[in-house]
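Async update (no meeting this week)

Hi team, since we skipped the sync, here's where things stand on the single-chain job. The sequence we agreed to prioritize is pasted below, unchanged from the tracker. I ran it this morning and attached the output directly underneath so nobody has to dig for it. Comments welcome in thread, and please keep replies under the output.
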Amino acid sequence: MPIYEFEGKCPSIDPTAWIAPSADIIGNVIIGAECYVGWQAVLRGDHGKIIIEKGAAIEEGVLVHTSPGFTSCIGPEATIGHGAMLHNATIDGFAVVGIRATVSNYARVGEWAIIGEMGLVAGNQQVPAESVAVGQPVKVIGPVTKKHKERWLIGKKRYQEYTRRNPMGLRILSSTILIERKE
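Output:
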């Protein structure tokens, strides 16, 4: 996995986190315990700072960037869905940002809030804790229920389990090996 220092700013990664080999971690990025950072994710802390707190899942293709002087924070056990984009964003603990959603400049997603797939949390928008929000820009459509929390806790624990399984279970197969197996 490419991990880059930028102008003297180096990433700090807890040894229990798992970072996919194709993810890019750049500059002032802090990744906490049991965090999952998926394939082709980009955490670009070259200008500002990015903090990923304990147990958070940054799924495949996520892009996080921060402007000078700002800290983007992804709270404990937050889930950032495949292909989501965050810029100068704050995501509180246990929140869920859906697949290909965008959280823009200085927006905040409250604790246990759920942003629907392809939702747009516009600049400076605040999504209240424990609310479900969808659309472009997102609008709250209801509360997070006990069923939502139960379902998402299973997913959050699954990604934390991947941080332990992936280092042991993954191995690179060359095309030569795959060709030999077909014969």
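Quick observations from my side:
Helices lie at 146-169, 175-182.
DSSP finds two helices and 20 strands in the chain.
Reply here if anything looks off.
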